[in-house]
Amino acid sequence: MHRNERVRRGKLSVVRLVPDPREAPVVRDAVTWALEGLSASSIARRLNDAGVPTKNANDAARLTARRARAVSEPSKASAWTSSTVLRILRDPRLAGYAIEWQGRTIKTKDTPGAAGKRTILRDETGAPMEAHEGIVEPDEWWRLQDVLDGRTPVVRQTRRSVPRSWPVRACCSAACAGPSW
């Protein structure tokens, strides 16, 4: 999605997010598909069928190489899941917004930790703070959130050309020799 880039500002070194040139087109496609009405599981299936690697797949390749030097079994490449797709589509950083984590706790040996939630940082007027270049336009991201929340009707395309079940009616009469379909 994004990668870190160090920028020098005088004596200060600042890390900022920039769209990853390999991942950004995949994310844009996922946004488009979601706006067209595809479910998160359909998007995940489409990405898996196309062989698009997840970010963890790159880590898995590194781990596989490391494990090959050891005795353990190589791990299977990570697959896209609906929860991964939703986590990406819900991320405010897609639109370039600054975020903060709410409810996130670090896992320790005594506590399980919690994932928390990304919330948009806002300025004193309540407007979202833009921190970096977004992958999609803010208006498109807000429209996407409405679709994901079910507030915007989306015309879903279907492959079925006939209804799921046909009502079966048989008519028998004196003039009829048998059932009429």
UniProtKB/TrEMBL annotation:
Transmembrane segments: none annotated. Pfam families: Recombinase. It comes from the Bacteria. PROSITE patterns: RECOMBINASE_DNA_BIND. GO terms for molecular function: DNA binding; DNA strand exchange activity. Signal peptide: none annotated. InterPro entries: DNA_bind_recomb_sf, DNA_bind_recombinase_dom, SSR_resolvase. Residues 8-154 form the Recombinase domain. PANTHER family: DNA-INVERTASE FROM LAMBDOID PROPHAGE (PTHR30461), SITE-SPECIFIC RECOMBINASE RESOLVASE FAMILY (PTHR30461:SF19). This is Recombinase domain-containing protein.
